Amino acid sequence: MKKISKLYKIELEFLKDAINNGKNDYHTFVFSTLNDNFPKSRIVVLRNLLVDPLKIYFNADFRSPKVAELKQNSSCTALFYDKKRKVQIRFKCKSTVHYQNDYAKQAWLKTRLQSRKCYMGPFAPSKKLDEWHPNIPLEYSKSDPEKLHSEVGYINFTHIELKVVESDILQLYHNGHIRFRVDNKQNLCYLSP
Ligand SMILES: Cc1cc2nc3c(=O)[nH]c(=O)nc-3n(C[C@H](O)[C@H](O)[C@H](O)COP(=O)(O)O)c2cc1C
Questions:
Q1: In whole angstroms, what is the distance from residue 108 CA to residue 115 CA?
Q2: Among candidates 159, 61, 64, which has minimal Cα distance to 102?
Q3: Which of 44, 48, 132, 157 could tie 58 with a disulfide, CB 3.0–4.6 Å?
Q4: Pocket of ligand 1 contains residue 29 by CB under 6 Å
Q5: Residue 79: which CATH number?
Q6: Domain presence at residue 120
Q7: pTM, whole model, 2 decimals?
Q8: Which ligand 1 atom is at minimum distance from the Cα of 43?
Q9: Is the distance from the beta carbon of residue 28 to the nearest atom of ligand 1 less than 6 Å?
């Protein structure tokens, strides 16, 4: 158990590094919600991580279907894969949608102007369009918005918190794969790979 406890800590360090390091494969992850009875997955960017209890965070447009899905059912999963090290992490999570509160405000303050224009688009993400539109204000197609104008995007901004209730970590090794689970009381056990 000492061994997997050490491996778990190492993965948490890689995840922490990935928040600001776009070259770390954990910088993006596959986030899945339930849409009626169908799982629905998409890529999102890891924006923060807290430990004890383990929580991970990403940003989204409040108008997007994923937010409506989380309001219906807060159960979701986050899937990370580090291609070079051949490590897969599957987190079973419960979500909280932070909108127009202190958590959302703090996260908004950290966003770049370049990202803010994505929240200034006229359409809800995933909406059917009659013709092509990048869903950013067209005046900013080649530039960033002014800071003052960018604040209008906050109305569409949400910071999503995922409380991890179970982790499943798989590491592929040529001489024998290692897989283990961490439950919500931080108990670790080996799993068959
Ligand atoms: C590399 C990459 C990063 C992305 N990051 C985010 C993100 O951080 N937040 C987000 O809401 N959508 C992000 N998206 C877009 C989503 O994958 C998705 O297409 C969009 O949010 C609409 O999702 P929905 O209709 O399932 O709500 C990203 C897409 C790619 C390809």
A1: 10
A2: 159
A3: 44
A4: no
A5: 2.30.110.10
A6: no
A7: 0.96
A8: 17
A9: yes
Tell the residue number behind the tokens 């999503």, with chain if given: 160
The answer to whether the CB of 158 is under 6 A from ligand 1 is no
Q: What's the structural domain count of the chain?
A: 1
Residues with Cβ within 8 Å of residue 10, at least 6 apart in sequence: none
Is residue 134 assigned to a domain? Answer: no
Q: Is residue 61 part of a domain?
A: yes
- Could you read off the pLDDT of 117-149 as tens digits, one per residue? 999 999 999 999 999 999 998 988 889 899 999
Cα 175 from Cα 61, distance rounded (Å): 44
Helix or strand holding residue 43 (H, E): strand 38-45
Instruction: Please state, rounded to an integer, the average pLDDT across all residues of the chain.
Output: 96
43 within ligand 1 shell (Cβ under 6 A):
yes
Using CA atoms, how far residue 80 sits from 21, 32, 88, 106, in Å, is 15, 12, 6, 25
